[in-house]
Amino acid sequence: MTNVLKENGGTGTPLLVLPTGEQQILVACRIRPMTEDEILQGGTIIAHKVAEDNMVVLLDPDEDHDDILRANRSRERKYMFDVVSDARAGQQDVYASTAKILLGSVLEGYNATVFAYGATGAGKTYTMLGTENNPGIMYRTLHDLFVEIKKFEGQREYQVSMSYLEIYNELIRDLLAPSSSFLELREDAKGTIQVAGLSELITKTPEEVMEMLHKGNRARTQEPTKANKTSSRSHAVLQVNIKQRDVTRSHTEQVRFAKLYMIDLAGSERAAQTQNTGRRMMEGAHINRSLLALGNCINALSEKGNTKYVNYRDSKLTRILKDSLGGNSRTVMIAHISPASVHFEESRNTLNYADRAKYIKTKIRRNVIDVSYHIAQYQQIIQDLRSQVQLLRDQKDELEIRLTTTNEARFSRLSDSNTTERLRVEEGLKLKENILQTYRKQIGARRALLEIDSGLMDVIHECTRNESVIEHHESNKENSKKSPEEITVDTIVSENTAQRARAELRVLEQERSKLEKQRKIQLKDFETSKSDARRLLEKVTKKMNTQEQRELLKLLSQNFEYEMKTIELQADIFARDYSIKHKDLQLLRMSQHRSLCDTLIYQQRRLIQEHQILVPIDLEELYQLYSRDIDEGQLIQDLKNHSPRSVTGINGKPSALPFLSQIAEEDLTSASTSVTSFHLPNNVNRRNNHQLSTIISNRTLSDQDLFTHVNNDLGQDSTTNKPMSYSHFNFEQSLKPQLTKGNSLISLSSESVDVPINTNDMTTGGGGGAANRKVHTTSPPNDSSVEPSTFFSNNNVKNKAKLRKQTQDIAARAAQRRANLHHKELMEDIGSAFSNEPTASKENTASAFGLEITGVKPKKTVTINDPVMSRSRPNDFHRTNSFSPEPIFNDPFYSTTNNRATKNHQKKRSISHGSTVNNRSNMPIANVVVPREHF
Ligand SMILES: Nc1ncnc2c1ncn2[C@@H]1O[C@H](COP(=O)(O)OP(=O)(O)OP(=O)(O)O)[C@@H](O)[C@H]1O
């Protein structure tokens, strides 16, 4: 069979790769020769290819040229197509002008379809399948596909598999497993049609393909009809899947997939012409129905602008052809007609359809998946490359030994008279040595460049880090201008750090410019060695004329390429590492900036309150929004999620990022102030430590904070080496050392907090009345069996788990309460608008207004009250302004009710021993107690 192809012109012409994007279907027309039957029937040739033009002229056999009346109403039809072939065109010609055009694209990862269309007996099967001695498109395409694949041997890995099915009477049969039951079509999530259970066989040679095709065709439903002795009564679909990837593993790898459909449709038929009855007629009806569906799709798709709905669902054929007609596929339609006058109507219909199909456009894109390897996998790839390098080295050494022996033998054989040959061999060896040296030089230059780059990256990173430290110090200084008596140890430490950073920066800048100069020189060296190697290679290639020499050269080059690839991979790892570090710093800087903004907002807010300035309602709402973000911990959560610390390494464990451990403690502290400065402006928190902790103790603690603190394994107080006190732990003393050891940034969000554990509340499991459901804890835990000090003990895992569980319970109950409250409020709001309606009807009305009452999302904040403060200063509240009827206590910064609720109910709140009671629900809502004198 392969010989047949060679005789027919083989695979000569190079393959095209067509561009991506919207493309029209390529429509070809094949006019077959007259058959004996047609000649016997007295048929005349009415279909002609016009010279070189891609035009078909179809003459009307009934036209009477002597009819003067109809002289101007000729039924002669002219059609233009992309390709037209007539009786003179051989199988190879038809293949070369149609399917072969697609092959290059298929190998590049584009889907393609070739389908043969036409009336029964028009020559579709001949074109697609052909005969044993003159195979058709299916075989030729696959043959060339394998030839092309062979060309890439050693560079790309291919897997070719095929499946072959027929649609007979709207039933799908697997032609490669004909005894299996009928198959069903399925549509996957992406809308791609799949045939469930279809066998897919991997093929390695064209011979295997041909064997499978024959096997499939033998199983195909074929019956003689009046119109065609070997009429195919089904649509046959050959699907070839091509998957390819590069042999050489790299850090990024492209895997390409392509689907190639080759379809031999059953022929449309007219009952009168085929004279079919019974089963044949039924078959014909099915064939026609599916072809009609195809025709409808073609009509809809060829509409200008293609706005019409395309109904692919009418037949299995159109469902399978969905992508080929309107989706991601380069498609070629080969319309077949008989030239005989007896088939004028069929030919005309076919040509009309083909003419419409010219306007169909498909959207082509390449099916490529970029497989990007995780850094952890790089090591493996490098290892693989190293072993490949070693293997090649061994091969090279072996070849060198063989070559030397051969050369020595040749030298001894060479007589003095044959000096020219001797010189030639000597020169060859010299060239080889030269090329080796150049390669070594190039590798050396690349390695040196990599080292400089890596050093430079480190220096740049260190510069940025120091700049960040200085910047933060400056902004802090600016932010909290202190009187001389306010200068504390912290201030001095910070100043020293900044000075150190400045000194470091100066040295680093010098180092950086030195490295940059070195890099320039090295880069030049590398470029020179590259061009030297290229020149030499060209020279040596010309000189080496024995097979052995060429093989050696090839091995040398491959060896060199692998070495270079290994270095490039290392460079890539460095670059990625640096990029992670850089992002880390960016995060830190953003965090610092946020800290500054928080402080600003806080101070502004304080000014407003102290001077009782009226603020516009929208500003007030913005404050509330801001406060909610802070309290819900959403921003902190985001920070945590994007923190490089959240990058997981092998086995899901956090990856070791040494950079983080290098961050100076002061940097972390500054990052940590992102939230704390909002609660603790510098001029407040420097006054005295007592005040500091008191203020902190009264902040709102969100669920997020709560979980974070519990989960963060706070352990022992590092200064006293004692377990953490239950009622209070201080950020400065407790969290910072943990953080600097590499704990999550989330911990930075909180300082000193009170953990609100009311064991009564917990043990009742939320099942009690309003008293048990109180959010605030006004007394220390009264469960004496639980030693507070053991709660945070590092070793007491049980207690920690218990505490975690209790905390979660509190949060869950608080969330539930809020949900109830929201629900209630919503119902009351709706109630005021529709006060006469019963509750059920209100819910209906709400849903009619797009309000889903039951779906009210519970808020996530738990409000904590300082037990000590609440008891000792019950009446120490004051009003600041009309927007804040209570002091900070009701400050929207700390308040967690939603905007609407806050707005609606602010005026109705009353103060009751440190908790604000919502008039409607009688439930305490979020609040924080802050004694006046602290401001
Ligand atoms: N280009 C051609 N050269 C020579 N013979 C041809 C050519 N095209 C078709 N024939 C012959 O015409 C006859 C009908 O062709 P074929 O079976 O391929 O038609 P078909 O369109 O597939 O019909 P059906 O739809 O009924 O299956 C066959 O005997 C075939 O060998």
From TrEMBL:
Keyword Lipid biosynthesis belongs to the record: no
Renumbered residue ranges of the record's region Disordered: 760-793, 866-935
Primary residence: cytoplasm
Biased composition, class Polar residues, residue ranges: 777-793, 912-924
Sections of the chain in a coiled coil: 375-409, 498-550
Feature: compositional bias, Basic residues: 902-911
Location of this chain's protein in the cell: Cytoplasm, Cytoskeleton
GO BP of this protein: microtubule-based movement
GO molecular function annotation: ATP binding; microtubule binding; microtubule motor activity
InterPro entries according to UniProt: Kinesin-like_fam, Kinesin_motor_CS, Kinesin_motor_dom, Kinesin_motor_dom_sf, P-loop_NTPase
Limits of the Kinesin motor domain: 24-360
Cellular component, GO annotation: microtubule
Residues annotated as transmembrane: none
Binding annotation for ATP: G118, A119, T120, G121, A122, G123, K124, T125
Keywords: ATP-binding, Coiled coil, Cytoplasm, Cytoskeleton, Microtubule, Motor protein, Nucleotide-binding
PANTHER family for this protein: CENTROMERE PROTEIN E, KINESIN-LIKE PROTEIN KIF19 ISOFORM X1
Family: Belongs to the TRAFAC class myosin-kinesin ATPase superfamily. Kinesin family.
UniProt-recorded name of the protein: Kinesin-like protein
Source organism: Rotaria sordida
